[in-house]
Amino acid sequence: MTTHAQTNPAKSKVLIVDDDPQNIYILLEILKNDYAIVAAKNGTKALDLAIQTPQPDLIVLDVMMPDMDGYALCQAIKSRPETQDIPIIFISALDRALDKVKAFDVGGIDYITKPFQREEILVRIATHIEIYHLRQRLYHQTIQLTEKNQKLIRINQDLQAQYHQIKTTQLKLIQAEKMASLGELMAGIAHEINNPTGFIKANINPARTYVQKLFGLINFLLQECPSNATHIQDELEAVDLEFIREDLPQLINSMDLGIDRICKVSNSLRTFSRYDQDHKVEFKLHDGIDSTLLILKHRTQGNKDRPAIDIVKNYGNIPEIYCFPGQLNQVFMNLLANAIEALDEANQGKSFDEIKANPNRITIETKMVGDEQVQVGIQDNGCGMKPEVKTRIFDQGFTTKDVSKGTGLGMAIAKQIVTEKHGGTITCKSELGEGTEFIISLPMK
Ligand SMILES: Nc1ncnc2c1ncn2[C@@H]1O[C@H](COP(=O)(O)OP(=O)(O)OP(=O)(O)O)[C@@H](O)[C@H]1O
Ligand SMILES: [Mg+2]
């Protein structure tokens, strides 16, 4: 039987469990002004009431009950997650034995002995309910704090990811900007060189003809002049006509060769500067590689510390491919620059002669693979990489170089251009101390 003595939702709720109605009555009288009271006369009913909402804020539990005693009921309440936190105070008559240790062992929080002392009961119950409420508040606050904390951690992670993204984008923009302005500069120089070289080139052949004609004229005049005119002979010897006659055509030929070289350089600059193409066009990869090598010439040529880097070109018979030429030039630029830097690193601590005995070498190989793929291999005999470096080279921002030297974007950009922009692949073979080879495969269309 259940006794709903008083249920006021604003008040804390106390569940009284006792098989003796007299006891329930006494407790009800003591508590009814301050608490909402529910009561049960046996364990089964008590368990039912303990899970009803609102749940009791405290249970007052008689030890001696016929079917399930107070200890067993206490254990049952403490074993259920939905009721385990409700504080339980045991009651027992003084003449009945109350095993206090057992009461605490099974989860009781306090005990009261009969006959009841009104004030004592009120104080004990009020104290335990307050502690229970404080614990509940603390528990909810802890949950809220944990949730807020987790939210902050997530926000922080998001911010870090965004920061990283922005930083990378910024670096990529700087790289792209650098390449674009380099391209513009090249195009500007090529343009400026073009006009004057055009004049010279156009004038060389007429100059050659005029020189031939002038020599013809001199020959004619000499035949017509009296050969014993010594002052003429003296003049001829003074200007060394015979030498000029031999040297001048050679001089013009070498000027012709020189101007051809300037034209080639200017063409290479123009090829390299095709940066801002926004659609794919047919392009000779060899032109791209050659123009990039030309741009890097100041870094491959010899200096006081080492002989020139040996550039070996094993160019195969490959067709033009559809691509973004400026972007592929950027890939060649990044790979060749890395190769030069790897050679520089391998040269550390070696003398000029030691390097000369085992020369720095970059080998560039191109070939067809099947009917549809073109392959470019760029190999160096530089420092090579440790396995843990090799697995990270395509990561954005990964570098083993000084902050001032490397941004760690070269390979990430190369990979993006090859795979995303051209549907190709880029792979790397490398052994520490043995050198490195990058292989790029590009579809022809
Ligand atoms: N040919 C190579 N030989 C040895 N290590 C290489 C080679 N190419 C790349 N690496 C390694 O890969 C790393 C990443 O290369 P990546 O080009 O992306 O950046 P970086 O050269 O360090 O800087 P940057 O952004 O200026 O190019 C390098 O720091 C280097 O450790
Ligand atoms: Mg690099």
Question: Topology, please?
Answer:
Elements: E1 2-6, E2 13-17, H1 21-31, E3 36-40, H2 43-51, E4 58-62, H3 70-79, E5 88-93, H4 100-105, E6 110-114, H5 118-224, H6 230-239, H7 241-272, E7 281-283, H8 285-295, H9 297-300, E8 310-314, E9 321-323, H10 325-347, H11 352-357, E10 361-369, E11 373-380, H12 387-390, H13 410-421, E12 425-431, E13 435-443
Parallel strand pairs: 2-3, 2-4, 4-5, 5-6, 8-10
Antiparallel strand pairs: 1-3, 7-9, 10-11, 11-13, 12-13
The structure holds adenosine-5'-triphosphate and magnesium ion.
The site of adenosine-5'-triphosphate has 23 residues, from helix 10 and helix 13.
Structure commentary:
55% of the residues lie in helices and 17% in strands. The protein is α/β, with parallel strands linked by helices and 445 residues long. It has three domains: 2-116, Response regulator (Rossmann fold), CATH 3.40.50.2300; 161-275, no CATH class; 277-445, Heat Shock Protein 90 (2-Layer Sandwich), CATH 3.30.565.10. Strand 10 (361-369) and strand 11 (373-380) form a beta hairpin. The model is unreliable at 1-9 (pLDDT under 50). Bound molecules: adenosine-5'-triphosphate and magnesium ion.
